[in-house]
Amino acid sequence: MSILETIKSRRTIKKFKTDPVHSEKLMTWLEAAAMAPNHRMTEPWEVYFIGQETRAKLNHKTNFGNAPVLMAVLSKHGATALETEENALATACFVQNFNLAAWEEGVGTFWSSIAAAANKREILGVPEGYDVIGVFGVGYPEEISEPKPRTPMQNKLKELP
């Protein structure tokens, strides 16, 4: 699959099969994710793999679609407000690289912002000085939804003098 096909076909997965995702594959995708652009090479991301006990405490309304792998991706704060923002943006690029690398091999993801809440951060043991970019279910899709309509890019373009 070409990169354009991968990007255009990627979907958020809401129901996963129980088939395991092998740790070697996860590491391959994480290593690819780490090639994300990040200003001043801060490499601000950290990944927490979430076990069953912690998952139960998170108490997500859909249990992350029963994904066999659950992970949180954190972004470290920078020395300045600007660097903290740049780090969060770099970590979002890290996440997108991971999502696309996994999708190319038939594995989908579900991105949840559940850990933005203080009590969920506490459950995950997120230290001060970190933002949680998301909690991700990862696995083989049980269902793949149709693409949602997008605003034509022509409607999003502006030309400056």
TrEMBL record:
Its cofactor is FMN. Keywords: Flavoprotein, FMN, NAD, NADP, Oxidoreductase. SUPFAM superfamilies: FMN-dependent nitroreductase-like. Residues 56-140 form the Nitroreductase domain. Transmembrane segments: none annotated. InterPro entries: NAD(P)H_nitroreductase, Nitroreductase, Nitroreductase-like, YdjA-like. One of its GO terms (molecular function) is oxidoreductase activity. Coiled coil: none annotated. Belongs to the nitroreductase family. This is Nitroreductase. The lineage of its organism: Bacteria, Bacillati, Bacillota, Bacilli, Bacillales.
